[in-house]
Amino acid sequence: MSFRRRGRVLAVAGLVTLLAILAVVLRLGISTNTVDMLSPDLPFRQHAKALDSAFPELDDTIVAVVDAATPERADILVEALYERLDEAASVRAIYRPDGPFFRRHALLYLSEEELGQFVDNLASAEPLLATLSRAPNLHGLADIVELAGRAEAGDMPSHGLAALLAEMTASAKALRNGDARNLSWQSLLAARPERAADTRRFLIVQPRLDFSRLKPAAAAIDDLRAAARLVEAMPGGGGVRLTGEALIEHAELETVERSGLQAGLLSLGAVAVILVIGLGSVRLILASLTTLILGLVWTAGAAAVLVGNLNIISVAFAVLFVGLGIDFAIHFVLRMREANDRGEAGVTEAGRGTGCAILLSALCAAVGFLSFWPTDYLGLAELGLISAIGMFVAAVASLTVMPALVGYLGWRRRRVRVVGREGALTASIVRHRFGVLVVVAALCVIGSFRAAQIGFDFNPMNLRDPDSEAMLVFEELADDPRSTPYVVQVLAAGEEEAQRLAARFEGVPEVGGVRRIASFVPSAQERKVSLIADASFFLAPILAQQPSGEPLDTDARLAALERMREALNALALRQDAVGPQAVLLRTALFEMRSAAQAAELEERWTVYLPQLFGLLDQILAVEPFGREDLPEDLQTRWVAEDGRQRLEVRPQGVIRSNQELRSFAAAAQAITPKATGVPVVIDKASAVVLEAFVVATGIAAVGMLALLALALRRPVDVAFAIAPLPAAAVLTLATASLLGMSLNFANIIVLPLLMGLVVSSGIHLVLRWRQEGAAASVLASSTPRSVLLSVLTTLAAFGSLMLAEHPGMSSMGALLTIAVCYIVVTDLIALPALLAMRRPPAPNSPGERAA
Hints:
disordered C terminus; mainly alpha; single chain; 35 helices; elongated; four-stranded antiparallel β-sheet
């Protein structure tokens, strides 16, 4: 009918295509949120949503990581970045974790022991600070070094002097090498050595999301990157890198777009090449590809209407459609040409001979895809729904549009041999059928041990591009317990519950620390303020003193530098830590004798002195404070409007493996089921995905058995059609395990899908076996070639997916490629050998004869 009424069929097809394109343009989008791929009704997702609702400022953030050579330089850069972003309309809010309040009250956050050490450092540095407050230049530094050279070893603390000389040496070497590095006075006075190296600052930026765009955070990200470039261009060195939830999703969206387009074009090109080789007719190839493209557009239109937003898994539907949708056209075309070889009406015979098998194959493939639909794994459920619709679209298009196109293009009937002879391979399979089955069975038995060892990588962060800046910075932060994103969040009803939960968490071995709003109010403030007052008493005159004299001229600088060299000669003779540092500084200064070098050295050594004296003036005038005095932007991040409080639980050490992440999440869940955060969400999501996998596999198996039983009716035929499945599944998992691959959130769909692929190919062979009456005749018909071409086109499509930049899509393509390779073995070697064991009974109904 489609052949005879081809004009009407093609007109309807054109109208449907236009409507589908309109739906795609207006409705189809992409979401990269991996958590949204799970049902929102799951308890752990409800807890996460409750936290997001109470603290919306924590959601969809970008983290700017500022690194510099010194703490002072890091402060300058982060302040400059803050000022530039504060003017950007695309930025909703900016939060600086170490803002002015914490800098002013920094000493109160030290322990009493650390504060005592800091006060001792200030006391030891009193002569140095007094000298520099009068002469903050090269002359003052030369005085300090001279004084140290004339003093006895015990008169000036060696560790402080050695640290000063080391800082001076680092700046001098940087000048000689053309690098940006100024002397850090904050590092010299740090209470703890690790604080001296604290040269990293953070800004947490919440963008204004524009959901009318495919990339809602694009404007803010562009503004942030532009601001970062301007800050990095400031003289003095330092860098800004970006990460965070919003940026990671943005980067993943870009990767998915590139990967999807690349894989789609590659798969379409590879399929076209295989069709050229397999069909040999330009008009038939054109008809097949046109049918495929129309079906792809129709499927995309259906996805736009039924789903709306694709996710990072369902975006692969296009490649799956190209790889599987062309199969039906191939079976139709080759059966048509085979019928033409025998002088029959090719199109009519093709429709009659393959229609039942095509529809049944589409049903089986759809069952495999839809097996995830009843589960809580919405990501694969959506991919399954779209792909299942695609299978029916491809089947309908192959049986309607394809014949119409063949009639319209005017394909001429001519005798072209498209079926093979019963050659050596055919005869070998039939003759050695027992041996073939024994070998396949042995491989399956051996492979089952290896297949059982395949792992499941449940961390969705491993499905992101590891080479993107956002992921590189994320992993770097995750390697530091102080900045790790792998923290557990708990929403407490109020102060009492927050205090009780914090006490319980502190006794858990997996927990390294608990923070809540009360954690930002230091203890023992009165005693600490008393210690600070002592330091303030002896430093007050120094901090109040104004620099004396005019800036040094050229001759004065050169003279001061020469005095410093002479003093270093005396210091180099000391046997403590000062001696080696004096030698290094003397060496660094050996060739620096020009006026320009002396001026640059003075600048590098003294530029941060005003910042130091200003900081000391602030931190030594501190007073005790309470929770009500904490900054408002801090309080809103820890206490919700309704009084609920947030607790942040950090792990003990660095989480480096999935097992450590799971243990930490389990320990937190044991304290309270309301615990959420990255570790808990990942752990709970993995359990949902594994459960979905088991359920989907069972649904697929039962559904296909039911379909085959209804269609084939004979238990033996059903057994033949399903027999290759366990072999292909075992060999696929065994090979993946040998190659070091793991199952993950993306490629776990492969096994239910594998059922559909194996059974679909097996159906064509079993139904043809019924018609021909012998396995040898089946192998000599066009059906094996149709199956082989179908498998090759599927392999080409999935192979292109394997080349995708996105790790999740690539892993799906890799596992599908392995599976398709084994379909060739099981369906074209093992199944014919199995069919050769028995002749089919005579058809007992017209429907069976037609099949």
